[in-house]
Specification:
five-stranded mixed beta sheet, alpha+beta, about 40% helix, about 500 residues, Threonyl-tRNA Synthetase, Chain A, domain 2
Length: about 500
């Protein structure tokens, strides 16, 4: 929380109230003299980081009610500025307060234009604040705080006056529908309880008569008068202030008022300067009289506060993110350690179990190669079954063919044999057939060759088979007599042959 101080300016002195956590204490006071202003400047040097507000309770005030057309923001501000400069051209301390819109088709806006015309009283203190570069929230006038008193007291009368005691004076403020319309300050000559009670009664009657003369109230209209005083002074005030047809008095104790406004330390007397200072510190009125150049340092303080807040949020965000990353890294390290420990335990269990296995008659590498070969044979149709079926179909059509051997090579073994000229492509099967053509001893070479060619054609009728003759039963070169292609010719007339058959993978 910032260190807040409220400067209560009266015609004769300035009192400094220190607000902290709902309590208000009198910090210092300075007389309206050269010596007092010098002491105030020294006081400001001791509190350069405090936030100051000025609460003015001056008799030199001006109030004027004006009506302007319904305008947008910029045009409205321009019209209000022009009217303030026309009405109160002798002082820079002016303010405006909207009193609402008229219920007509034009919706004209009703404004209260106010000014602190006692410029000479404010200037020494304002100059000291300006030279010390103090953050000034604004200059507030005491009558505008009365609206909050009525709101907390739940007084919603159409017309009402509020009388309060502060700084050896009585503040008399007139409200319509909870909005300020007029205020004046009367000096208090007798400060005793009886004198204060009589002054309240006399001033209430004077203000009622003034409002009646200004035609602000009707002649037969009863006006409510709210008096705020200390509980010990209320009995004497109630005795002096007796309600009539013209005035209806209502009394509010300072203790009750402090409780409603949130002030923890109620005023010790009927003077409610500290109560008004608390309102300025917690919920200042909308209308204030300081121009923007005077509030420049306060705006800088607000900007610094926003930047500090953003920096704090960023720092907290970084801390939260770093803590999250640290926790995540710690969790991952813990999980990695657990996994490594479990892997080590699994490895030890495997080694313990492996020691119980019987010894293998071959090496692990050889066993692995055998298993890989077996897996290849099991997958992808790499067994000789289909090729043997195709060969069997060809043999069924050639009864004169006798097979002696079949040398089968699968896809994983594609190395060419001595009788092959080219290895089969990857994924194909290959078989080297060796056999004889046997039609008996009386068969002619032409008959044997025809039987052999029928067998080859039967095999080639299968589109998946590629047949290559590597050994003919007879030499068939032109210009030569038919004779066996091998020297090993049996007495039965059988003629040997050899075929290389390649089976492609089915599409």
């Amino acid at each position: 929380m910032p260190d807040r101080r409220i400067l209560y300016v009266s015609p004769h002195q300035i009192a400094v109230f220190h607000w902290q956590a709902g309590t208000v204490s009198n910090d210092a006071s300075f007389e309206s003299s050269n010596h007092g202003v010098a002491a105030f400047r020294e006081y400001l040097t001791n509190h350069p980081h405090s936030i100051f507000s000025i609460l003015a309770n001056l008799p030199e005030e001006g109030f004027q009610i004006e009506t302007i057309p319904f305008l947008q923001r910029r045009d409205r501000d321009a019209v209000i500025t022009r009217k303030l400069s026309q009405l109160f051209y002798t002082t820079p301390y002016t303010a405006s307060l909207s009193l609402g819109y008229e219920k007509t088709r034009r919706k004209d806006e009703k404004l209260l234009l106010a000014a602190l015309t006692g410029q000479a009283t404010l200037e020494p203190w304002v100059d000291a604040l300006r030279e010390a570069r103090i953050a000034l929230t604004g200059i507030y006038s005491l009558p505008f705080i009365g609206e909050m008193l009525l709101s907390k007291a739940r007084i919603t009368d159409e017309r009402c006056i509020v009388l309060t005691l502060q700084d050896q004076s009585i503040r008399e403020t007139y409200f319509e529908n909870g909005k300020l319309h007029f205020s004046r300050l009367s000096q208090l000559n007798n400060t005793s309880i009886v004198g204060i009670a009589q002054s309240f009664a006399a001033e209430a009657i004077k203000l009622q008569q003034y409002l009646l003369s200004q035609r602000l109230i009707a002649r037969n209209q009863t006006l409510r008068a709210l008096i705020v005083a200390h509980p010990q002074a209320l009995p004497a005030i109630e005795t002096s202030c007796i309600s009539t047809e013209a005035l209806n008095y209502q009394f509010l104790s300072t203790d009750e008022c402090s409780h409603q406004l949130g002030l923890k330390n109620a005023p010790a007397s009927s003077h409610i300067d500290t109560l008004f200072a608390h309102v300025v510190a917690t919920k200042a009125p909308v209308a204030q009289f300081a121009k923007e150049p005077l509030r420049h340092d306060y705006h800088l303080w607000q900007l610094r506060k926003v930047l500090y807040g953003l920096g704090t949020i960023a720092l907290i965000g970084c801390l939260v993110f770093s803590c999250r990353q640290f926790y995540s890294a710690y969790s991952h390290n813990s999980e990695a350690s657990d996994v490594a420990e479990q892997a080590q335990l699994a490895r030890q269990r495997y080694e313990d179990i492996a020691r119980t296995f019987p010894p293998i008659p071959t090496s692990n590498e050889t066993l692995r190669q055998i298993m890989n070969r077996y897996t290849e044979l099991e997958s992808g149709g790499s067994t000789p079954e289909l090729l043997f079926l195709d060969i069997s179909k060809g043999l069924a059509q050639a009864p004169a063919i006798d097979l002696d051997s079949i040398d089968w090579k699968g896809p994983a073994a594609t190395t060419a044999t001595t009788n092959s000229t080219q290895a089969p492509p990857d994924g194909n099967q290959r078989a080297l057939l060796k056999g004889t053509v046997n039609l008996g001893s009386r068969a002619t070479p032409r008959q044997l060759l025809t039987a052999f060619e029928d067998f080859v054609e039967a095999l080639r009728s299968n589109p998946l088979l590629a047949v290559k003759v590597t050994q003919q039963p007879f030499d068939t070169d032109s210009g030569k007599a038919l004779r066996s292609g091998s020297a090993n010719v049996t007495e039965t007339g059988a003629r040997p042959f050899a075929l290389e058959i390649t089976r492609r993978k089915a599409p």
